[in-house]
Write the structure tokens for this entry.
Amino acid sequence: MNVNPSRQSPAEWEESAQLLPPTERDLPAGRHLFHKERLMARIQQDQHNEQNNQAAEGRRTAAAGAVRNRRFPMPRRAVLGTALAFTLVGAVALGATVVNSGGAGGGSGSGVATGPALTTQVGAATTKGVPQLLDQLSLAAADGTNPTVKPGQYIYIESKQADTHERTVDDKTTLVSNKLHTRQTWMSADGVKGWLIDPSVNESPEGETLSLPDEQGNTPVAHLGGPSYDYLAKLTTDPDQLLKKIYKETKGQGNNPDQQAFTTIGDLLSESYPPAALYSALFKTAAKIPGVVVVQDSEDAAGRHGVAVARMDELSGERMEWIFDKKTHVYLGERTVQVRENGGDAGLIKPGTVTYTSAIMNRSIVDGMKQTPSKAS
């Protein structure tokens, strides 16, 4: 989706790909792609752990360049096999383009990448009323009842998601979408145990583990790019200090610091269950980021309309929108819309293309892995 001058060129990726075994199915290009998230989260964790180790800087340069223009959704942390890891790095380096040398791909995980491009009418954005709306959202969040997650409990998030991306088969690039589907995640309070069910990426309908330690026996330390509830509970709720921390920990990520800060807060809103005090502070923190606007009418993946807090990535031309109910100010979901030319490597992503959309359907605390609220005791 995003265009970054520091990433590999297609020619460089094709040369690298010859050294790797071919994949047997498409690697979906949606934002919340399980295997890609696991790889990128691990790369980010490596960067976090070694940020003061100058001797390791050279080893991280290539990986950092590959992920610089990508999002780091919450929290998927596990390590991949070496061959698949390098394959995914190449896929990330090509932005949103998925390369497959033959066929449409197999496996249940690629079966939803068959729909037409998602489009919408680009809504008008304004800076008028931004402070007031974020203040209202902060007050509503402070009055909320986000529960405390106890040891042994799990954060359960059920969402609907879809995305649009470029897919290349036999040198022919087309625009396709992962059709609307349900996604379920479970994550323990300490972030060590987790589970994902997502038909766009899982080979099995039963899902796949997110539990740690990984295959190498490592248990990464939680951080902003891969937080646990316990980690979030200890974060500062002072907006100035929180924003300073976000800028520091996400330095070098994204297309510019302000957009990456906005993205990081958006991921915390959508893919975690922050304590009420932090949840409220996130909106006050967002108010301090330059370029934030209001879109009076936006639509989430479930078709619910609301008001959006948004920001456009100046380099990619994409606008990320956090969508809230206009009356209750409850968070509904998120979408990313191409608002001007500059989308995708093949130039097929035009203004009005919805490159990602989501809707939160349920966010609860449950007592067991793979337990849903309706089955909770």
Q: What stands out?
A: Confidence is low (pLDDT under 50) at residues 1-108. The longest strand covers residues 172-188. The first helix runs from residue 10 to 17. The radius of gyration is 19 Å.
